[in-house]
Amino acid sequence: MTNRFIYLIMLGGLFLMPALSQAQNLTRYIVVLNGNKTGFYEEEKLPDNAYKGYYWLNDRGRGDSLHVSWRENGAGVITELEVTGCDYYKNPVVETFSMKDGLANWQNQSEKESRRQATDAFYVALSGIGGDITRSLLMNPDKRIDLLPYGSASLELLGTHSFTHNGTTVKYQLAAVKGMGFTPNYSWLDEQGRLFASVGDWSSFILEGFEDLVPELLELQNAEESKIYDDIRKAAVETPTAMLIRNVRLFDAHTGKITPMSSVVVKDGKIAQVTARKIRPPQGAKVMDGRGMTLIPGLIDMHVHFQGNFDGALHLANGVTGVRDLGNNFGLLETRKKVEKGEILGPTIERIAGLLDGKGPFAGPTPALAGTEEEALAWVDTFARKGYDQVKIYSSIKPEWVPAITRKAKDYGMRVSGHIPAYMTAEQAVKAGYDEIQHMNMIFLNFYGDTIDTRSPNRFRIPAQKAAFFDFNSPECRAFIKLLKDKGTVIDPTVSIFINMFTDRPGKIPIAYEAIVNRFPLTVQRYFRSGGGGLPVPDGMDETYQQSAAAFLKMVKMLYDNGIPIVAGTDNLAGFTLHLEMENYVKAGIPPNEVLKIATLGNATVLGKQSEIGSIEPGKRANLVLIDGDPTRNISDIRKVKWVIRDGVLYDPVKILNGLSIRGY
Q: Is 592 within 8 Å of 255 (Cβ atoms)?
């Protein structure tokens, strides 16, 4: 599961499709997800400034199917709009908008409003489809326009570049629409100002037949976008020769206890001294008074799909100094080097897993797709040759291939983890050599047999409808827990995803964002406040879905109580979601100090890096977070990040967030 992509969809397409086409007759665009074609958008220009289009996406059985029609005035502003279909999780979508005689009316799954509007304003569809704001901005002499429901957007043209395609030179201009998100929305325009492509590290949208240009477009676009992060680095990053943090509560990740009034010296990227005595600062050291605060080891997120500066900035600003990537393209290896050189903001990418899946209609977002067992084993060879640390098996791998894959991976010294392939159970996977299981739904699915096609959204629907009635005292449950204990199997619950999936409802702020939504830009807040990111709930099953969410938390506690190693990971919005995952572990009944141990030394131990990171001890890398509060008493204090240190480099979280139009805590 890759919730980075879900997150883009939740933002109404502002990042996936920042501007839809100005088409003549019929134009077709292709959606490319991590190198694989996963969808398309077709648009037809009709008489009298009218348009109609169809957007379709298949992301492992999930994905939108949206029909849209709209009409524009002479300034490219929408005057009529209708969208019908279903969203990413197959919830029904019906959205309408009209502007007539200065009165704007719109209705969707979360909003119903009428408003007098004195000037032209561009309606941003909650469904993320319809109209072309870039074209409208190009028509405006000031290259600025008001937005509905609120806000404004402006356009900056960033230069034209030449490309070679099929032996022909083509030219496209990079455009940035500002004011609609955390950072500008970038798109590429042809020489007539029509949309050619909108590209990103994870997903891209490009005119059909030109998919091969995505990497080149992305490289140029990232170079432009990096200027934003260069400014953030100048404002938020310090590299003092030494640091002294004194008068601080010190969290011991071995014992889970607090030592009051402690001092920590950082020098040459390492922790040089830890003492309860008052000491003089080293010459030239930056001194920080931690009175009333708590110093903890840097947090580690064990389930990310790292996407560059934006993710990296959010991780650091929230105290995440290390991550494990569980599925990406091969460009991550170069990204990792750039993080280490300081060219990209971000935590250390401590370990990398190669995501391996079988070919087919539900194939995961990875270049490593196998049609035979031999091809699967060849991909394991490739991962090992590239220096990967782990193999993550995905849902379309045939169960009979798993033993051979695990044997080969372990011959290279790599861990094996993943989803449970279709028509296999978690028990079978553990016996076949899994070291770790990703996602709590895979634990519950173990008890419903090996006839379930877990490639499809059934892997979400079935636990949502059955977990509420699960018997935690059954012999089957006790036997499975014993198997995990005997094998030393690690569980990566990412439980926050499922709680949101089971409990989010249209028109309500998702639980995941209740604590942070007010800190985001207004235009982004709208999408978070609209809710609707959950599964469709059949009639009469609302309470069942709520109880299933509670059962997922109960399973987290059961694993913990039985000594099954669990790690804290997110697979969702960087930084902020790790705090939520930790809060959910406390809701499950795990004491806050134990949750802190899991997210620091516990995660480091699973990584095999407990001698380098995870606790505050002399000689270890200086990965430290200063918290304005005491998360051992109130885990939500983990959100109050005052300072972050990664390998001796000091980061100001507020300045990082402000650079992305996010308020500090």
A: no
Q: Work out the burial of residue 50: count CB atoms within 10 Å of its CB; fewer than 13 is exposed, 13-18 middle, 19 or more buried.
A: middle
CB 264 within 8 A of CB 616: yes
Query: Do 270 and 648 contact (CB within 8 A), yes or no?
Result: yes
Measured distance CA(352)–CA(472) in Å, rounded = 34
Average pLDDT over every residue of 180-187: 92
Structure tokens at 439: 């996602």
- CA distances 535 to 89, 129, 175, 238, 422, Å, are 6, 21, 35, 44, 20
Instruction: Summarize pLDDT for 272-319 with one digit per residue, the tens.
Output: 999 998 899 999 999 999 999 999 999 999 999 999 999 999 999 999
As separate numbers, helices (DSSP H) first and strands (DSSP E) second, the chain gives: 18, 32
Q: What is the pLDDT of residue 24?
A: 52
Q: Considering only CA atoms, which of 648, 57, 112 is closest in space to residue 340?
A: 648
Q: What percent of the chain has pLDDT over 70?
A: 96
Distance CA 256, CA 609 (A): 19
Beta-carbon contacts of residue 245 (< 8 Å; ≥ 6 apart): 263, 264, 266, 288, 290, 295, 624, 626
* More confidently predicted of 616 and 505: 616
Q: Which of 445, 420, 411 is nearest to 548 (CA)?
A: 445
Of 70, 46, 78, 59, which Cα lies nearest the Cα of 7? Answer: 59
How, if at all, do strands 50-57 and 390-393 pair? unpaired
Residues 496-502 have a mean pLDDT of: 95
Query: What's the pLDDT tens digit per position in 374-413?
Result: 999 999 999 999 999 999 999 999 999 999 999 999 999 9
Task: Report the alpha-carbon distance of residue 283 to residue 46 in Å, rounded.
Answer: 73
Q: At CB < 8 A and 24+ separation, what contacts does 63-69 make?
A: 63/38, 63/39, 63/88, 64/9, 64/39, 64/88, 64/93, 66/93, 66/127, 66/129, 68/125, 68/127, 68/129, 68/130
CA-nearest of 15, 91, 86 to 56 is 86
Q: What is the pLDDT of residue 22?
A: 42
Nearest one of 438, 436, 397, 446 to 416, comparing CA atoms: 436
15 pLDDT more than 80: no
pLDDT cut 90: percent of the chain above it: 83
Find the largest Cα–Cα distance for the chain.
Answer: 80
Instruction: Identify which has the larger pLDDT, 9 or 158.
Output: 158
d(CA 56, CA 117): 33
Q: Give pTM, 2 decimals.
A: 0.92
Q: Integer distance in angstroms from the first to the last C-alpha of the chain? A: 29
Cα(441)–Cα(427) distance, integer angstroms: 14
**What token pair was written down for 545?**
């879905």
Separation CA 427–CA 484 (nearest Å): 9
The stretches of 440-591 forming alpha helices (DSSP H) are: 440-445, 458-466, 475-487, 495-503, 522-530, 542-561, 576-587
**Please, are residues 558 and 524 in contact by the beta-carbon 8 Å criterion?**
no
Compute how many other C-beta atoms are within 10 angstroms of the C-beta atom of residue 387.
Answer: 9
DSSP state of 282: P
The runs of H, that is alpha helices, within 562-664 are 576-587, 592-597, 603-607, 653-658
What does each C-alpha distance from 32 to 128, 564, 621, 630 come to in angstroms?
17, 38, 39, 44
SS3 401: helix
Q: Report which of 229, 196, 200, 210 is spatially closest to residue 2, judged by C-alpha positions.
A: 200
Q: 663 φ, ψ to 5°? A: -75, 145
What is the model's pLDDT at position 547? 98
